[in-house]
Design a protein that fits this description.
single chain, 159 residues, three-stranded antiparallel sheet, 5 helices
């Protein structure tokens, strides 16, 4: 991916120098021409086209912001409730993610789910042990979030 970005910037500068004036508009148009050229020759690169990866990172970031807002609202709801009625418990969730980066991202994103904290990861990194604040609700929301997060993480790391 870094090679593709540098090649695209080089094409943009080359385009700008071949024009009659050097301006930011010529650089941007050269960058877009470079994107088109790299898109056409992407099969010669070992890695996928870098713009696809950037879009996947953007989707993961938007998903993170969305879940952060939902989590904040749920925490406010729990804090302002006059009577605290919780049923804590521990449950396990299996994952098919591989590697430390993917497991760490999933663990951090699951911690956004209100009332859930990753306690431990199994030695083979296939099972996460999670403490839930309100057991039936926490487990359901974590399982829903896990599937969404896993798909987004795989889009970023496995292309």
């Amino acid at each position: 991916m870094p090679v593709q970005v540098l090649l695209n910037i080089f094409i943009a500068y080359l385009w700008m120098f071949l024009q009659e004036e050097m301006s930011i508009l010529n650089f941007i148009s050269g960058y877009l021409v470079g994107l088109f050229i790299l898109l056409c020759i992407r099969r010669f690169f070992k890695k996928p086209f870098y713009l696809f990866t950037l879009v996947a990172v953007g989707k993961l970031f938007i998903l993170f912001i969305h879940e952060l807002n939902i989590s904040a609202m749920m925490v406010v709801k729990h804090v302002l409730r006059p009577k605290i009625d919780v049923k804590p418990g521990i449950f396990k969730v299996e994952t098919d993610l591989e590697g430390d980066l993917e497991i760490t991202l999933l663990s951090l994103l699951i911690c956004l789910t209100p009332g859930s904290v990753i306690m431990e990861v199994s030695p083979d990194s296939k099972v996460l042990y999670i403490h839930g604040l309100n057991m039936p609700e926490s487990k359901d929301s974590v399982l829903k979030s896990k599937t969404v997060f896993e798909k987004a993480i795989k889009d970023v790391t496995r292309k």
